[in-house]
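User: Fold this; tokens only.

Assistant: Input:
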Amino acid sequence: MIRRWTGLVALAATLSGCGGGGGGTAATSTATTTTATTAGGTSCSLADRQAWALAQLQEWYLFPETLPTNVNPASYTTVSDYIDALTANARAQGRDRYFSYLTSIASEDAYYNSGASAGFGVRLSTDAVNRRVYIAEAFEGAPALAAGIDRGAEIVAIGTTAADLRTVSAIIAAEGTAGVTTALGPNTAGTTRLLRISDAAGTRDVSVAKADYSLTPVSSRYGAKIIADNGRQVGYLNLRTFITTADPALRQAFASFRAAGVTNVVIDLRYNGGGLVSIAELIGDLLGAARSTSDVVDYTVFRPEKASNNTTRYFQPTAQSIAPMKLAFIGTGGTASASELTINAQIPYLHPNAALIGTNTYGKPVGQIALDRAACDDRFRIIAFATQNSARTSGYFTGLASVVEASCQAGDDLTHPLGDPAEASTRAALDFIAGKSCTRIADASVGTQSATGEGKRELLTPAHPDTAQRETPGLF
């Protein structure tokens, strides 16, 4: 369901979360409440676009008191750099870590409507200390998986031909993880790279061309299933991103849980950077068979002078809804925005029976509206509202580890498929549901993904990610 507000902006559903950052820049992922009406004029000169961006911030920004008055637009050669300068004070306070950004209307609409993107169709995880890059996930219908590259494989070297192959270790040593992004080339169909891959089958060189594909939000291989664990039936759901096409897949998954009498569920959001708020609220409904239509899923709160846009979303149980006794949410530092909203919404109802498994989440309790300057294909995703659960809990800018009432520390185990009961985080989630003790996630700072026996890993994110990379951290 798309919510709409009266006024200048028609708000639909998108917050922005984030992943780790290549080049020192945190990426954002979206969980929006917006499809905006066209704003601004038709001139696309740099000065006019900058002036338009400033006007939108002054009118809608959630933190107007942080906007500087001494930033000269002439000092910046792009609108994005100007926006970054205007939001620098909020960023220094940890409240807007590049969450407000300029993107393309056309490319964003393509992603949110169908998951359309171009690339190899993999999610990359980096161990910067040991200078290594791994495949954290490979997507169905995309080039990499078709070439036999899947979760757990390591990219040892990258080149355009055998003659210019460079080891990943050398690339990171010379250029940091941002050098890996550069080596992989632009996300345009036809871009071809020779990748030296090492996995259980051995080491080999594979030539892969980037192509257009549509990201499936719930994997056909492991996205939804029922795990038999010591006589207990546990529903497992892995959601990659909050986009429109997740709706039927989620309903189908929960219908199967309901038909099997499942009352304990693992929801795997470990790489999910966010997306549409409407999909997060649908998950709330699907978990809300025991909720009444007067129970609150979440509140959306704008700055005081925009309070007429505030909304309250109540539960709307569906024919597929279940009433869980225990919920285990798998998260990492790549879990942000709409993913965090989904987790936070359950805390006041399930209390310690809703646990965070893995590591701390990213920390993005705020969301964006979308303001369009159609003549220039400019969409300004601007942080304009905060989200709160029914207990009015919000402000978790350092992640959910200090907010959830129960948590269990676990690694992201690339040696096993996602959803495999032997995979470290999945195993910890099943053990939580079984009532076993665990070590609480103690770190209340922004989390990073961890791997057993290795250095800390983070999803690889370029300094200037496109919409798909913001919502699907690590996507290439």
